[in-house]
Design goal:
Layout lengths: L7 E4 L6 E4 L5 E5 L2 H7 L4 E7 L3 E3 L5 E5 L7 E5 L6 E6 L6 E5 L13 E3 L23 H4 L2 H20 L4
Parallel strand pairs: 3-10
Antiparallel strand pairs: 1-2, 2-5, 3-4, 4-9, 6-7, 7-8, 8-9
Length: 171
């Protein structure tokens, strides 16, 4: 018998917005860029990137708020309409096809530690990364650092991402 696929439940503080990740994420980023610091109000953002169709709503839908980003293309942040907690973002590059789930909104956030630390060139100087942490001053090449399974899932998603990008008006 096959082992069950792990799932991860989460939601906002008031529990009006609840969701389930039906599989492990593609990757978990700990982003130390100044934009993530500002938007999170913390020293970094911890996001689990996953295909949107692998996220199931268990309660109310979040409200999507357009927020400026460093790229100039903005991002869509999904927030509880009542307690205003951000549960995930859609970034311009992949749009609604992927969600960057805020790991801190999971019921068991310790199940998803960061795979990679990005934009460490702008991390707070008092943040000390653990020995052996995979870290990059800016971004990285996913082909070199993602698991084979995540890369295969990305390849399946890639034609949809390309179609999404072609459907958008030029910036």
């Amino acid at each position: 018998m096959d082992a069950p696929t792990p799932s991860f439940d989460g939601g906002c503080t008031c529990r009006q917005v609840r969701y389930r990740l039906n599989s492990p994420p593609l990757v978990v980023h700990c982003c130390h860029c100044r934009w993530c610091q500002r938007e999170s109000g913390a020293s970094f953002a911890l996001n689990a990137m996953i295909e949107s169709d692998r996220v199931v709503h268990l309660a109310d839908e979040p409200e999507v708020v357009h927020t400026p980003s460093a790229s100039g293309a903005g991002q869509q942040i999904a927030r509880c309409p009542t307690c205003r907690v951000a549960v995930w973002s859609h970034y311009a590059g992949t749009g609604p096809l992927t969600r960057f789930v805020r790991v801190g909104t999971l019921d068991e956030p310790d199940r998803l530690p960061p795979d990679l630390h990005v934009f460490t060139e702008s991390k707070q100087p008092w943040v000390v990364l653990p020995p052996g942490a995979v870290a990059f001053p800016a971004y990285y090449d996913r082909k070199l650092h993602w698991s084979a399974g995540s890369l295969a899932r990305w390849q399946m998603l890639r034609p949809l991402i390309d179609a999404y990008r072609q459907s958008r008006p030029p910036a």
